[in-house]
Amino acid sequence: MIITIDGPAGAGKTTTARKLAARLGVPYLDTGAMYRAITVAALDDGIDLTDEAALTRLAAQDEFNLELGEDGIRVILRGRDITDEIRTMRVNDHTPYIAGSPGVRKLLIGKQRAIAEQLGSLVTEGRDQGSAAFPHADLKFFVTANLPTRAKRRLAELRGDEGATLASVRDNLAERDRTDSERPVAPLVRPPDAIDIDTSALSIDGVVEAMLAHLREAGLVGAESS
Ligand code: DC
Question: Structural domains in the chain?
């Protein structure tokens, strides 16, 4: 069973995906972490982030691993644990270059499908999981939240990253919304067959309950997942 969760930054995808997966007893995949890992590698190597061929070569080296655990994903790049580093503003600011590379996207979608094949069942979240990576997913969710709510959540996630304020995080999110939806390569689009969930006024548990209700309705899980 493949369940996709797509939506803009800060809509609550990662936490929701983790909790939903735990309730279902299946692994979850944070595909943003993959784009972030390549960003760290590119910054480490001093690669020109507009050099498509160099970015694609870097991604093809496949030098990072995701360790999918119940309480989170650890990201290992070239033997180094970069789980915390990928959440910094520096990495936030540079990831759109990586996400805008067609070569990188193709390779990462391949990696996502290979992981799904290996695991069988998966809750996977990102921007293109229902639209490009898993068009035949069993159920697709598209989660949104208003900008102030998303900024508050993202600030909490940054946990004191130097210089981050509510205003700077909000501006950063607004800019990422723009680049995510206006970029020529794989812009954020709502899959037409996705179920919309506005998480602004919901707790994470509320979102997970709403998703479980849809899964039950679709006959994908039994009443025991209540
Ligand atoms: O979800 P996130 O904030 O960790 O995503 C980091 C960046 O990667 C963001 O710029 C969007 C991009 N991304 C993407 O283009 N496609 C995905 N499947 C996941 C993330």
Answer: 2-207 (3.40.50.300)
Q: Whose CA is nearest to atom 4 of ligand 1?
A: 32
Does this model's pTM top 0.90? Answer: yes
Task: Cite the beta strand spans of the chain per DSSP E.
Answer: 2-6, 28-30, 64-69, 72-77, 80-81, 122-126, 139-144, 195-198
**Whether pLDDT at 116 is above 70:** yes
* In contact, 100 and 185? CB cutoff 8 Å: yes
**Closest ligand 1 atom, CA of 96?**
10
Pocket test for ligand 1, best of 35, 98, 104, 182 (most atoms within 8 A of CB): 35
For the chain, the distance separating the N- and C-terminal CA atoms, rounded to the nearest angstrom, is 18
Q: Which residue has the tokens 């936490």?
A: 15
